[in-house]
């Protein structure tokens, strides 16, 4: 990855995580029902955008593709935060709510991606690389003016997760995305281990762990790319397998970590 691609991916990741934190903070004050994933809106928006822009810049403008698809959409959406919520429901044996949560989270992201694909056919939004810099500049000014220091720290961790995901995704096979699967699974397991250990730390330590959870783990995992890969798979059997392996292994190992990690 050259310097320009590195910069664009990092900026896209920073914007994506910052937007996710804003959306979740608003949604958290509205949603109280555990069956509805807290990240439902950011996962929908990210899946919509990746459906809209996925093929548009991939060949002619790889930097913009990285910024939008891998950076912004990959970090706006988060597999780890969603599945951690599912694991918490499973830990408390709320199996019905757990299944409904999985169904709603998957359906909303799938709907967002399909709507994005259809919108791409109907609309041609002119995009320029300068928009990425402009959005980043306005975002930084906003965060500093309103003293969103914790958000800035969290968002600064996002490029590490996004870049690691970019390199691990090179393990993706044309028939099965092993790289994305590994990113999502590792992010969930790391997040679950950190959550368990968080009780042993003081307020500053908990703040740091929260930043790692939302910034690094949230960016290492992704719903938008996951849903896109499921939708474009040629084999129905592989789609089914990829979906359930991702869900089952992340939840099952997460429960094992919860039971045995002191």
From TrEMBL:
It holds the Pfam family CRCB. It is found in: Cell membrane. This is Fluoride ion transporter CrcB. Its main location: membrane. The chain crosses the membrane at residues 6-31, 66-88, 94-113, 125-145, 175-196, 240-261. It is a multi-pass membrane protein. Belongs to the fluoride channel Fluc/FEX (TC 1.A.43) family. Fluoride channel required for the rapid expulsion of cytoplasmic fluoride. GO terms for molecular function: fluoride transmembrane transporter activity. Coiled coil: none annotated. Keywords: Cell membrane, Membrane, Transmembrane, Transmembrane helix. GO terms for cellular component: plasma membrane. It catalyses: fluoride(in) = fluoride(out). The lineage of its organism: Eukaryota, Sar, Alveolata, Ciliophora, Intramacronucleata.
